[in-house]
């Protein structure tokens, strides 16, 4: 093989790849057009083959090192650069996309809130009218602890905070995912979960109120409940979105309606998970801590709730970026790029 002739023939490709990579490194992959992306993919494969040939023919350390550096840069921008863009899209989703989808789907979340409140009001009413009603909803052990000993049950968490926090997170996530999955039953199971949770909270709140323990009880609930309850309401809203797709697909085919409303439900799930993780940490470490003043717990709860409302109410200043339509689109975007890459 005539080495000089081979190098002269291949060198324009190396220089062109170097120029494209320099542009990508400065401005990102989005600065390239579709034709340039295909060219980048083709040149990358071509230069990788040249590197293998240079190593086989032992064409010199300097040439091999230069080609190796060029292929490494190409790999980094094509694969790692794509991942970096995905992380940027994730940040943008939580910054603007999640508030947008919360606002778009709020009627479904409001339905979940209404059902929860109906359950709470029913429990409160019947518990005051007939004290025996509490035994239907609240465990007897809990009733005896509050009525007979005038104590709350949160002290059992103290000393086992990491274990309790993990268990709380798992329980809250299972309830939330159950509410979302309940949409497959046309929203019937989601409705049951919202009403049942309302009954439970309403009955327990009445029990502690009757025994003059409301202030410490709500001091325990406020810090984590300011995130936990909204997350459960969002989960209920996601379940009702799926139920809407099944019962009232409207102008869509039922399959298409499930895809459309399911995409919104998935976006809500991406918001629910971090909320429940944070709430679980607070419930495990802050809410039951006897050394933290109760007034401080109230302030933390109100502060978190005000922040959440302000975050979810923020208005989009510009036309939403395509990435804001949901995390699942990140996968599609990556697959689309890789298909271009494979076609060359």
TrEMBL record:
Keyword Membrane: yes
Keywords recorded for this protein, A-Z: Membrane, Transmembrane, Transmembrane helix
Keyword Signal tagged: no
Pfam families with a match to the protein in the record: SpoIIM
Parts of the chain that traverse the membrane: 105-127, 152-170, 177-209, 229-247, 268-289, 295-312
Superkingdom of this protein's organism: Bacteria
PANTHER family from the UniProt entry: SLR1478 PROTEIN (PTHR35337:SF1)
Protein name: Stage II sporulation protein M
